[in-house]
Amino acid sequence: MAWAFVVSFDSDKPNVGSLTGTFTDTDSTVFTFSERLQATTAALNSYVTAAIAARNVWQTRKAREATALTSVKAAFVAAGEQAP
User: What is the DSSP letter of 28?
Assistant: First the structure.
């Protein structure tokens, strides 16, 4: 589980740009979070907090979807059908 980042500044506004963080989870799925911001410590701290919160929501949703899929497959098997 690791983050990778790309920073690109606007050509006409040297302290404004985009920050994109890409998080690769243990199952190799990828979450990306991008934001335009000013090059300040406060903006960076806000980005970090928002990126982590959004990643946590993504992971929670991903886990719930996996659990739901397992339940659906089990219901099909219980009904005598083959589940994919």
Answer: S
pTM of the full predicted structure? 0.82
The answer to whether 37 and 16 have CB atoms below 8 angstroms apart is yes
What is the enclosing helix (H) or strand (E) of 43? helix 41-78
User: Using CA atoms, how far apart are residues 21 and 48, in angstroms rounded to an integer?
Assistant: 9
DSSP 48-84: HHHHHHHHHHHHHHHHHHHHHHHHHHHHHHHTTPPP-
- The 3-state DSSP class for residue 39 equals coil
Tokens, residue 35:
């934001």
DSSP state of 14: T
Judged by phi (left if over 0) then psi (alpha if -120 to 50, else beta), residue 68 lies in: alpha
Give the chain's length: 84
Side chain identity at residue 38, one-letter code: Q
Residue-wise pLDDT for 11-30, tens only, equals 999 899 999 999 999 999 99
